[in-house]
Design a protein that fits this description.
The chain has 316 residues and is of the alpha/beta class. The protein contains 15 helices and 7 strands. Among the domains are: 108 residues, Conserved hypothetical protein from pyrococcus furiosus pfu- 392566-001, ParB domain (Alpha-Beta Complex); 43 residues, Arc Repressor Mutant, subunit A, CATH 1.10.10; 58 residues, no CATH class. The relative contact order is 0.06. Pfam families: HTH_ParB (PF17762), ParB_C (PF23552), ParB_N (PF02195). This is ParB/RepB/Spo0J family partition protein.
Amino acid sequence: MSEKNEEKNIPAVGPLAAKRKIGGLGRGLNALIEGSYEKKSERLGLVPHPVNSVGLIPVGHIQANPYQPRTHFDQDALQELAESIKVQGIIQPVTVRQTGTNSYQLISGERRLQASKLAGLESIPAYIRKADDQQMLEMALIENIQRENLNAIEIALSYQRLVSECNLKQEELGDRVGKNRSTVTNYLRLLKLPPDIQIGLRDSVISMGHARALINIDSMDQQLALFRRIVAEELSVRRVEQLVRNGATAEEEKKPAQPAVPVVPPAELKRAERHLSERFGSRVMVKPGPQGKGEIKIAFDSVEDMQRILHILQPA
């Protein structure tokens, strides 16, 4: 008998048997924990799991994290994750704490939990750990900072909550999130900008570099003025930094003094209009413009009237 035939006749045991049982590649951690996705619901998660262990827990037994810093999740991205979970299963377990018999509270993994519900899973793998309310808030915030695609304002708000609600100093905060103190400080300073600028940064109207330059302006009115100019003129970060250094934060930079332009008095304009109207027998408007320029408009009622005016304009 050949080696291939012998291999076919060897009974499958251990993990190989479980792998063959569910067909093809396993369904993520669920397959590793239970060996199959086809377990009856009454067999899932009804026995309390010990702390610091990983087990399958029914999604209906997991409550949302009341300290979750993210309140909006992109539905298209969640649906894509749900489709991936249908094929691959849960690759990384969520983290929960046990609050009662068969009752758990999510610490981290909100997107995975929501996507698992969309995928129709009855249970998901979860890491059970011990945590008080402050630890839950801290872990939820840090996970979002490290793993989510947060904008600068969301990161700054998360840092602020860690400082104020978790009583962390900026040095401690930097250690927790893997950032140096200056980086943490720069993010926290963004929250001192006017709301309009914070919204612009949140919505990617301006960049973090623009915002950091604006922070160095003392006047809120000047910050807003330069912010509007950045948006209107699409100024680069380097250009904004130069303007701030030079103190040119108003709507327009200071320009060299221009020579005074004579202004025609309104009364003289009216006299000129009356004189020309009498001369051409039609209504005449004299409109002054910038730099001493302007225009004269002569109205006519018909082609014949226009020809009459042109005849008057011709030199004698």
